Amino acid sequence: MSKYPNIERLVLIKNLLSVRPRSSAELLSHIEEKGGLIESARTIARDIKVLRDLGYEIENPTKIRGYLLVNTGYKEDLLERYNDYLKLSKLPETKNEDGLITTPQLRGVEMLPNLFKAVDDFYEIEFDHKGYTSKTKKTSEFLTWRVFPLLLKEYQSKWHLHTYVPSLTENNFRTFGIDRMSNLKLLAKFDPNRVPNADEEIELFKKRLGSAKPLDDYNYQDLKGQPQFIKIWVSSFYLNYLKAKKLHFTQNITNETKVLLNFAEKKEMTYTLVTYLLVPNYDLIKVIVAGLGDIILEQPESLKVYISNKFNGLISKIIIDKNPHR
């Protein structure tokens, strides 16, 4: 049996268990109501094991013979996003002559089940990859890579695979966009102990927004490449987006508010304090800059100075709070 059964069924089970404890019989009933095909309670048990393998913490409460989802952690909603991709990939082809669809074609998502398997079960993999050369602004030729996969991450509708490349003599940790990967092969299992500082590297990659590398020229109190406590003030308008979809799994929306001047709207607004624990990188800076007054960076001070200096002070209004109301 495949390690990754019907994705829609897994999403339904996950959502049901996140509300309250459910017995196997209840889960069977709900799935049948949705028109799902399922054999027996043993199928439910296998699906629960798959969800646990994917990182979902599911307990068996003593009061009922059933299950309860208590924590999703880092992999929160990855399964649902994958399910969304599968649904989108089934849309009929269209010439799209009016340019109404601007989302890039979904490339590489068919590899996700095997990539999850490779990450979870420590399989070395081989694939072809067409990179991007920043100097020429053109794509490079295909190269064949053999790597140890460490972690999958989805950010802004793109999936990234963080890996260790044993054949390199330096900078062994590399990240690949799966939309540029092809001809994936699962090879033999590898010993995870062969990856130096693997646990630390995985945690640092989790604490990045997106897949961009840590800032090479940014160093705060000898914490280069390390997570920092990020505090931003967010307008009520932008807060709705953060509530609907977390920017990062460390997101914490506090109850603290204050009135600040939104330079874009040229009027005072109520802002809410939102915090993160992130490794500063360009994906984080892009979010702050693109906020256009809906996001005001308060901490760390060193990152405010870095952004202001890097962009010649052009975005000082975005990152520096000059409002008299405190």
TrEMBL record:
It comes from the Bacteria. This is WYL domain-containing protein. It comes from Muriicola jejuensis.
